[in-house]
Design goal:
Blueprint: H1 5-27, H2 30-34, H3 53-59, H4 74-94, H5 101-117, H6 125-140, H7 168-188, H8 192-195, H9 200-206, H10 212-218, H11 222-238, H12 248-268, H13 274-282, H14 288-291, H15 297-302, H16 307-335, E1 338-340, E2 345-347, H17 354-389, H18 393-421, H19 426-430, H20 434-443, E3 464-472, E4 479-481, H21 503-511, H22 521-531, H23 534-540, E5 556-566, E6 576-588, H24 593-601, H25 618-630, H26 635-656, H27 665-684
Antiparallel strand pairs: 1-2, 3-4, 3-5, 5-6
Helix pairs in contact: 1-4, 1-6, 1-13, 4-5, 5-6, 6-7, 7-11, 7-17, 7-18, 9-10, 12-13, 17-18, 18-20
Length: about 700
């Protein structure tokens, strides 16, 4: 089987890119979200309880405990971690020596530290997914420098270490858990839109931050929307088991189906770094042969295949055709696909009941765990076979150490992940080995494994609810406070902000789904607007003159709930239409007893003033200077600038790198001999035909 060195390098670069976007996006929002004048000041979350230093760090694992030692408050510590995380991730993205386990451990620890004080604004599934993926990157990253060797290391056939690729299996397993659970929860939630296959007739319009393309996608015919829902179920439920298929072409087909789904989501919705992160996980389905620039067809022509290999190829083709046929039959049978030749449409409907699906889920949940266990066992046996082939006692002993450590870690993380994975089927959860439950409970707060289930229910079936803030100086004439990204102005087109996540805009979307008491932070937002706090105002409008009360804070603030719909094609100059529903938050002013009661009820009152920031601290001054230089930039522009810089540097590396120089005659002969040695080692040792890859319920909200 083809190796996985190129996919692993692609995975590590992708994880670094996602960390870079996540840290940089968060950095731009820290003063308004977590600063002393922010909505939820971070200093309230870290209060020493009189416990020992290490016990305190274990129970609340965040490096921000050490911020006072640097003369920084919690918000400044957040800024420092975000800046360091951005720079470190940028370095790992650009240079191979920095793709080291220690670098990814620091990135993971920094993001975990941020999440510990992030409160509701960091309770998103993609934050948990990034933490879990980041920890896997620690295990996947090579301990030494990347193997740019020109010949195989002594004692290792083909230059492959026994433990190489072992931890990478966990990435494939994580991708399986993410996609399979996301498909299953759509049906276990009993959402009528998913069961009626009409979810996408609402989704483009009601998602948090649609793109301009979502307006056009919303206008597609209903039969095509329903067929797209069927395709979503196919890609999320039926295809993921193919991640572990022994036939390479099946795994590649599964890979491209996931790419198609994620690309379509990116085109129609602003989901920050989530889709990019999912694509990064999908690299575990690839191999070196598929990614290599040189095709292997020439070698096949030179080397005639023996009859056992020809027989295996025929059997693999028959298995592939059988799988495609089974998938096609299952889709037609389960969703009643029929072609209406008169109307030129494909009709679809759900032909199974909730009880039937529940019984099916109960029947397949444990077998999918055993499928993962069998695939992991194959990976372990493959690694053990490579270790047996290592020549020399000393080399064998040196190879046994990383193999033992990574093998134990891989098995442990697999066992831990079974607990959150089984949440989707309660009876299977109760039948798990108690040791897995104990192991998961021990490390649950580290978020090494999490439960997933995106787009569980479709919201806004009667129109997307939207909260509109209003301010006034006299309580009679009200002016709407428009956000930069979320819908408000009917004539403004939906923005494109990916990979940035405006976290206040996202929480405003969640707040609109219920009463304001379900979103305690909203009262604090109103208070900051009444006080005219600049950091919070910049979350709403980065360009200060665009904020209607930039000269003087409003005397009164209130909020109204509207229902929004995409405009009709004949409504020129408008992207939205809306209808008033009710008052969401009553009119209040500073000192209003109703506002004080809400703030006190949710523990949001400033009982003690924040500590004065030290102006003589050099580090604090440096952070303040960096903030002052970057604050004029909007977050999407900053992230796109980072992306452009990375692209420019990559182009320069490609143009000026040693690989672009002509090789000497002696060097031209080396790759051929190296390929021959690798081919010889493959013929001498049986290569496995499977390369498989790789949840805690938290107080988080998911779309």
């Amino acid at each position: 089987m083809a190796g996985s060195r190129l996919p692993r390098q692609l995975f590590l670069q992708g994880v670094a890119a996602v960390f870079m976007f996540a840290f940089a996006s968060l950095y731009t929002q820290i003063p308004g979200l977590y600063g002393p004048e922010g909505i939820l000041p971070a200093r309230r979350t870290l209060r020493p309880q009189g416990k020992g230093r290490w016990q305190q760090l274990w129970e609340t694992p965040t490096l921000l405990w050490e911020a006072p030692l640097l003369g920084l408050d919690t918000a400044q510590g957040l800024e420092l971690l975000s800046l360091l995380g951005t720079v470190l991730a940028l370095g790992a993205l650009l240079t191979r020596p920095l793709r080291h386990p220690l670098v990814y451990l620091l990135l993971w620890a920094a993001y975990l530290s941020v999440c510990q004080v992030g409160q509701v604004f960091l309770y998103f599934q993609w934050d948990s997914l990034l933490l879990e993926t980041g920890f896997l990157a620690v295990l996947v990253a090579p301990l030494g420098l990347p193997p740019n060797h020109k010949q195989a290391p002594q004692g290792r056939p083909g230059g492959v270490s026994p433990h190489e690729g072992l931890a990478f299996w966990l990435v494939r397993w994580l991708l399986f858990r993410l996609m399979f659970a996301s498909g299953v929860v759509k049906l276990t939630s009993r959402c009528p839109a998913w069961w009626g296959l009409t979810a996408l007739t609402y989704h483009y319009e009601t998602q948090c931050l649609p793109t301009p393309a979502a307006w056009f996608a919303h206008r597609l015919p209903v039969w095509l929307h329903k067929l797209s829902v069927v395709a979503t179920f196919l890609i999320e439920i039926a295809v993921p088991p193919l991640f572990f298929a022994p036939v390479r072409r099946l795994r590649l087909a599964a890979f491209y189906s996931q790419v198609l789904l994620q690309v379509l989501i990116v085109i129609t919705g602003n989901y920050n770094f989530f889709n990019l992160l999912t694509l990064v996980l999908a690299t575990a389905l690839l191999d070196d042969t598929h990614l290599a620039a040189k095709s292997s067809t020439s070698r096949r022509k030179r080397t005639p295949s023996s009859w056992p290999k020809a027989l295996l190829a025929v059997l693999a083709l028959l298995l592939e055709l059988a799988v495609y046929g089974l998938l096609a039959y299952g889709v037609v049978h389960c969703f009643g696909l029929e072609v209406d030749w008169e109307q030129h449409v494909i009709r679809s409907r759900t032909t199974f009941t909730f009880h039937q699906f529940s019984q099916w889920l109960k029947m397949v949940t444990l077998p999918t765990m055993w499928l993962g266990a069998a695939s992991l066992a194959w990976e372990l046996l493959t690694a053990l076979w490579r270790w047996v082939q290592v020549r020399g006692s000393l080399q064998k002993l040196c190879a046994a150490v990383p193999l033992s450590v990574l093998g134990t870690a891989t098995v442990a993380l697999f066992l831990i992940s079974l607990v959150p994975y089984s949440y989707m089927e309660p009876s299977s959860h109760g039948r798990l080995w108690t040791g897995a439950h104990r192991l998961f409970g021990t490390v649950e707060h580290l978020q090494l494994a999490n439960s997933y289930g995106l787009f569980r229910r479709m919201t806004g079936l009667g129109g997307r609810p939207e909260v509109v803030l209003e301010g006034s100086y006299d309580g009679h004439q009200w002016t709407e406070i428009e956000f930069m990204y979320k819908p408000g102005n009917l004539s403004r087109p939906p923005p494109i902000v990916v990979p940035h996540q405006p976290r206040l805009d996202w929480q405003m979307w969640f707040a609109a789904l219920g009463p304001h008491t379900h979103s305690p932070w909203f009262a604090s937002l109103v208070l900051r607007l009444l006080q005219g706090k600049a950091p919070v105002i910049r979350l709403i409008q980065n360009h200060t003159p665009s904020y209607p009360f930039h000269k003087q804070p409003p005397t009164y603030v209130r909020a109204q709930r509207y229902k929004y719909w995409f405009s009709h094609p004949w409504e020129q100059g408008r992207w939205w239409r809306r209808q008033w529903v009710e008052e969401f938050f009553p009119s209040v002013s500073l000192g209003d007893p109703a506002l004080d009661v809400l703030l006190g009820q949710f523990g949001l009152q400033d009982k003690s003033p924040p500590r004065a920031r030290s102006s003589s601290n050099t580090l604090s001054q440096a952070l303040h200077w960096i903030r002052r230089q970057l604050s004029p930039l909007e977050a999407p522009a900053l992230l796109w600038g980072l992306l452009g810089a990375v692209g420019a540097i990559k182009v320069m590396q490609a143009l000026l790198g040693p690989q672009s120089l002509p090789r000497s005659k002696e060097e031209k002969h080396k790759p051929a001999s190296q390929e021959d040695s690798v081919a010889a080692s493959k013929q001498a040792s049986p290569a496995p035909n499977i390369s498989s890859s790789s949840q805690t319920p938290r107080r988080k909200k998911s779309p």
